[in-house]
Design a protein that fits this description.
Required for the export of mRNAs containing poly(A) tails from the nucleus into the cytoplasm. May be involved in the terminal step of the mRNA transport through the nuclear pore complex (NPC). This is GLE1 RNA export mediator. Pfam families: GLE1. The protein has 349 residues and is mainly alpha-helical. It has a single domain, classed as GLE1-like (Serine Threonine Protein Phosphatase 5, Tetratricopeptide repeat), CATH 1.25.40.510. The protein is 65% helix and 1% strand. The chain is built from 14 helices and 2 strands, in the order H-H-H-E-E-H-H-H-H-H-H-H-H-H-H-H. The protein has a two-stranded antiparallel ribbon. Helix 1 crosses helix 7, helix 4 runs parallel beside helix 7 and helix 6 packs across helix 9. It is globular and about 60 Å long.
């Protein structure tokens, strides 16, 4: 059985989709939450499509400015593993994002012109948030899909950089959630619609339609890392606190829920293993510190489940088994160490 976290640890917020108490049948609730997320995202897309179809030249200019600027800034945010240059670029990016989301005028990459604030453009805030989510997901799939390693600090600098950047970008995104109450539900709707396993919930048939298996694995891997980082990365700036819904308790619920979901055999273990592995890579060290022996029991439960011949046809399951064997033997999960650079982010130029 999957162990439950200590009763002394507060339960995850109801505002965040999460598994209920271990052993409870949560499939109906998860299905409802997934449908609500997907309906919300479909409604947003329809609203924005209608707005664009009848958009004024001012709104179209604003949309292009937001999209081009965010794409360029997020690409720069993740472009260098040289610490000083990375801090400079991240600082510039964060200052720009704060300007956009605090309704101030900003200079865009689009035609290098000054754009009026969101407040002065009809539906500007909604466009900005929606575009940021789109750019964030594209950046995640491009930047955070490095194959998993047993020890990222010893087996590949590119992989370690990938995980640290996921944390840094998640910190920035969590900060923006603090700036706008409307942004957080939109962000979660995007992530959960693109990867329903993060509920955790079996992906519906149409989620897999038209997608190669490798693409689905890559999406689970990249979004799993980004999603986990949202719940464990420290706040980027002292004046902004992490939204209370982004609790590490939800990562426990997610990890335990994925193990229980695998035990039902209702979907591809390849996708579940890729998602669980990504969550453990990013949030595992924090969960180990928080839950101690109970987290070790969860890892052993997962290893017992996946270390079976029937799972060995899935490459992601083999990688996960090797990872679980390694961390249980080592007695720790590598801490990404992203906090040291993040704490200096706004003080270093």
């Amino acid at each position: 059985a999957v162990p439950a976290p200590s009763a002394a640890v507060p339960a995850p917020s109801a505002a965040v989709p999460a598994q209920s108490a271990p052993g409870a049948n949560n499939s109906t609730d998860s299905g409802w939450r997934w449908r609500k997320c997907r309906e919300k995202l479909a409604t947003l897309r329809a609203q924005l499509t209608d707005l664009i179809n009848g958009a004024t030249p001012e709104l179209m200019t604003f949309k292009m400015a937001i999209q081009t600027t965010l794409q360029n800034r997020l690409a720069q945010f993740c472009a260098s593993d040289e610490p000083q240059l990375m801090r400079q670029r991240q600082q510039q990016t964060m200052l720009l994002l704060l300007k956009i989301f605090s309704m101030e005028p900003f200079v865009s990459f689009y035609q290098q012109r000054k754009i009026s604030s969101i407040r002065s453009v009809p539906n500007g805030e909604q466009f900005a948030m929606y575009t940021y989510c789109e750019c964030l997901l594209m950046q995640a799939e491009d930047q955070f899909s490095e194959p998993a390693k047993l020890r990222p600090d010893e087996e590949g600098a590119d992989h370690l950089f990938c995980l640290r950047i996921a944390q840094s970008l998640a910190m920035a995104t969590a900060m923006l959630c603090s700036c706008s109450k409307a942004f957080q539900p939109m962000l979660l709707s995007f992530l959960l619609a693109e990867c329903p396993l993060l509920l955790p919930h079996p992906p519906p048939p149409d989620w897999e339609a038209g997608r190669e298996l490798d693409d689905r694995v890559m999406r689970c891997r990249s979004l799993g890392r980004l999603y986990a980082a949202l719940f464990c990365a420290p706040p980027l700036m002292g004046s902004f606190s992490r939204p209370k819904e982004f609790s590490l308790n939800h990562m426990w619920s997610l990890a335990a829920g994925l193990v229980r979901l695998s035990a039902t055999g209702r979907h591809s273990h390849l996708l579940t293993c890729a998602t669980l592995h990504s969550v453990l890579e990013v949030a595992g060290a924090s969960m180990w510190r928080r839950y101690g022996a109970q987290f070790v029991k969860l890892l052993r439960s997962a290893l017992k489940l996946y270390d079976q011949e029937s799972y060995f046809i899935d490459s992601s399951a083999v990688l996960l088994v090797q990872y679980l064997q390694f961390v249980l033997a080592a007695g720790f999960i590598t801490d990404l160490g992203a906090t040291s650079s993040a704490s200096q982010l706004m003080s270093s130029a």
